[in-house]
Amino acid sequence: MRSAGDWDPLKELLTVQKRMNKLFESALERTDFDAQDEVDTWTPVADVYESPDALVLCLELPGLEQEQIALRVEADELIVSGERLIDREQPEEQFHRVERAYGKFSRRFHLPSTVDRDNVEATYRDGLLRVSLKHRGKKQDATIHVAIR
Asked: What pLDDT, in 10s, does the model give residues 56-85?
């Protein structure tokens, strides 16, 4: 049993602060502040892997039609964006629980210098977007040595 002399309010406050920091860090990891004008409401999950001839990205986008997805390459980034709307059959429907994410989304993926930004293929089937960026003919060394004059 603790005596009143053993209790340290400053130590308790520091413990609460650490817990709050962890809570905010985990929330911020799931938020994309790179979005143009607003914080996105959800972030689709993605797998990124490399095959011998391409960099491949697979994003889960269930419930979307192909026309609701925008895909573009800007400078050294691949950007996937769109919006998933709540499908209401009748305007007077009242939801009791909403667990699926809706609204705008955007994902940005940094592209390595080894991919050919002009050679991108994408397919969308069964809620899975698969994007393949072919490697350039000759892989370039990631390190470039520059002579100093």
From this structure: 999 999 989 999 999 999 988 999 999 988
Strand extents, DSSP E, the chain: 46-50, 54-60, 69-74, 77-84, 103-110, 115-125, 128-135
Per domain, the residue ranges of the chain are: 9-86+102-135
As its CATH architecture, domain 9-86+102-135 has Sandwich (2.60)
Q: Encoding tokens for residue 90?
A: 């009748």
Letter string b/e over residues 105-126, b meaning 16 or more CB atoms within 10 A of that residue's CB: bbbebebeebbebeebeeebee
Number of helices and strands in the chain (H, E):
1, 7
Q: Is the dihedral of CA 113, 114, 120, 126 positive or negative?
A: negative
Read off the tokens for 68.
Answer: 């609701």
pLDDT of residue 58: 97
Within 10 angstroms of residue 43's Cβ, the number of other Cβ atoms is: 15
CA 24 to chain centroid, in Å, comes to: 18
Residues 6+ apart with CB under 8 A from 140: 113, 114
